From TrEMBL:
Keyword Transcription regulation carried by entry: no
Full protein name: Small ribosomal subunit protein uS11c
Similarity field: Belongs to the universal ribosomal protein uS11 family.
Keywords: Plastid, Ribonucleoprotein, Ribosomal protein, RNA-binding, rRNA-binding
Annotated GO CC locations: plastid; ribonucleoprotein complex; ribosome
Taxonomic source organism: Schwalbea americana
A biological process term (GO) from this entry: translation
Gene Ontology molecular-function annotations: rRNA binding; structural constituent of ribosome
Subcellular location: Plastid
PROSITE patterns: RIBOSOMAL_S11 (PS00054)
Keyword Plastid: yes
Length: 138
């Protein structure tokens, strides 16, 4: 007798489970990108996979108000709130950019109850940068 070949079902018929599953994340990295116009807070696990993120634009701020410290504070609280529920206790903070929201975002991260292991400024600095424009002749 010949063996029966197992039928492989197409992807359409297979029920896909919930993509957002409850993960326990004890440690993570919080990236704060504070530009002059916006503040983006991204929370990742130790391997660098994004767990949660928020920006001043998604929190409902528009125009010039996105670059304010209050918008950055709201953004940080929004991004970290979901992660605290997943059990994050310790985190490293990487801050990038010259924006006004740097300190406000860091202050709200302190208040969230997560213990910070390290706070590092990772703003890129040129080591001589681009060639300047040639001198103006009048």
């Amino acid at each position: 007798m010949a063996k029966a070949i197992p039928r492989t079902r197409s992807r359409r018929n297979v029920r896909i489970g919930s993509r957002k599953r409850a993960r326990r994340i004890p440690k993570g990295v919080i990236h704060v990108q504070a530009s002059l116009n916006n503040t983006i807070v991204t929370v990742t696990d130790v391997r660098g996979q994004v767990v949660s993120w928020s920006s001043a634009g998604t929190c409902g701020f528009k125009g010039k108000r996105r670059g304010t410290p209050f918008a950055a504070q709201t953004t940080a609280e929004n991004a970290i709130g979901t992660v605290v529920d997943q059990g994050m206790q310790r985190a490293a903070v990487m801050i990038k950019g010259p924006g006004l929201g740097r300190d406000a975002a860091l202050r709200s991260i302190f208040r969230s109850g997560i213990r910070l292991t390290i706070v590092r400024d990772v703003t890129p600095l040129p080591h001589n940068g681009c060639r300047p424009p040639k001198k103006r002749r009048v």
